[in-house]
């Protein structure tokens, strides 16, 4: 076999139409170019929509994420007696505030804070109630009345919780507790009924940044005067919810202070006289009928209600047979006794039954006609 001849046999290649290939390549190139051109047009159209047509809309949304209005709660008005002695004041405390929407794994965070700042079940319950009533991305008071030790412990661990912050806040304090409780009443945490009423009266916006409202007594009756007007700060925040700078602000207007007609010294004196007894004493000024003292015993410490009274303390007050929450001076129903005698005398004189000089002998008892039974 001639191998040389075998290997030198020419190979027959298939026929190739190079012109057709060039046309095909050109068509594919044109389609690709048109596709790129179309996608580029879509891209620039969307950019135009975003940057030009919908600029104001997206700028507003962006500012909504970057710029926040923080409420500035007003300082509540003070309460004084007739001689200017302070009865109700505002003390500065420190509390731990949290932005729930910025908190990763909220439940785990709350559990860890039990060991860091002594967070209790009552604190968590109050926080959840306030969260349901509050607005999103607004700091909510989580732990009130922080001690110096708790503040220090959080300062050490705070870097782990960027959505939490220690802030000062004002808390109502009653200097004379049980002595003035039935007169002053107290402020307490807003409940759902309070929120519904404030919204109905178009006053809810003025309570942004505060949870307190007058619940009883003077605090409730003069709520609109004592509350003041809420201010605001427009601030720029970062992605962690921390304030970078203040853009503008409107300061809060403090509530007006009020002076009562009550004489604190007389109130305390009568309270001491009724110590250990159940009763009520009301003293009026004969010149203008203003109330100088109004005592009901036993009483209670209204400071217990300011931060939200514990269930144990509330049960104790409710189950007390002496009924300390009951104001015998304003809620009690009593027979008129001798207070009705001047009205009878005026009526008798008007009808000419007696004169200003008429005298009547009173042996200290009364006998029914045709009877031997006496009434003393």
Automatic annotation (TrEMBL):
It is found in: Cell membrane; Membrane. Pfam families: PBP_dimer (PF03717), Transpeptidase (PF00905). GO terms for molecular function: penicillin binding; peptidoglycan L,D-transpeptidase activity. GO terms for cellular component: plasma membrane. Residues 279-371 form the Penicillin-binding protein transpeptidase domain. The chain crosses the membrane at residues 29-48. Keywords: Carboxypeptidase, Cell membrane, Cell shape, Cell wall biogenesis/degradation, Hydrolase, Membrane, Peptidoglycan synthesis, Protease, Transmembrane, Transmembrane helix. It is a single-pass membrane protein. Residues 72-247 form the Penicillin-binding protein dimerisation domain. GO terms for biological process: cell wall organization; peptidoglycan biosynthetic process; regulation of cell shape. Signal peptide: none annotated. This is Penicillin-binding protein 2.
């Amino acid at each position: 076999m001639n191998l040389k001849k075998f290997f030198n046999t020419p190979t027959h290649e298939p026929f190739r139409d190079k012109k057709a290939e060039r046309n095909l390549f050109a068509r594919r190139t044109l389609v690709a170019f048109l596709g790129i051109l179309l996608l580029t047009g879509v891209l620039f159209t969307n950019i135009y929509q975003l940057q030009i047509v919908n600029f104001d809309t997206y700028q507003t949304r962006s500012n909504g994420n970057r710029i926040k209005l923080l409420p500035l709660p007003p300082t509540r008005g003070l309460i004084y007696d007739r001689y200017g002695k302070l009865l109700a004041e505002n003390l500065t405390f420190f509390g731990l505030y949290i932005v729930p929407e910025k908190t990763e794994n909220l439940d785990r965070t709350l559990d860890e804070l039990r060991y860091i700042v002594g967070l209790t079940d009552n604190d968590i319950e109050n926080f959840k109630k306030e969260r349901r009533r509050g607005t999103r991305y607004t700091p909510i008071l989580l732990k009130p009345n922080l001690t110096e030790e708790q503040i220090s412990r959080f300062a050490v661990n705070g870097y782990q919780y960027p959505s939490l912050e220690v802030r000062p806040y004002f808390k109502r304090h009653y200097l004379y507790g049980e002595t003035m409780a039935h007169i002053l009443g107290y402020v307490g945490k807003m409940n759902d009924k309070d929120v519904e009423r404030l919204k109905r009266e178009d006053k809810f916006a003025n309570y942004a940044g505060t949870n307190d409202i007058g619940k009883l007594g003077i605090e409730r009756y003069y709520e609109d005067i004592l509350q003041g007007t809420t201010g605001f700060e427009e601030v720029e925040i970062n992605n962690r919810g921390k304030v970078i700078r203040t853009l503008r602000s409107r300061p809060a207007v403090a509530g007006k202070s009020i002076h009562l007609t009550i004489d604190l010294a007389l109130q305390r004196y009568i309270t001491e006289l009724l110590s250990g007894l159940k009763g009520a004493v009301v003293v009026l000024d004969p010149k203008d009928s203003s109330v100088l003292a109004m005592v009901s015993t036993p009483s209670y410490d209204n400071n217990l209600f300011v931060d939200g009274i514990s269930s144990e303390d509330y049960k104790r007050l409710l189950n007390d047979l002496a009924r300390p929450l009951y104001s015998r001076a304003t809620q009690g129903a009593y027979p008129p006794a001798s207070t009705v005698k001047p009205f009878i005398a005026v009526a008798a004189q008007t009808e000419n039954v007696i004169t200003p000089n008429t005298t009547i002998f009173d042996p200290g008892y009364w006998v029914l006609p045709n009877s031997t039974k006496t009434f003393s």
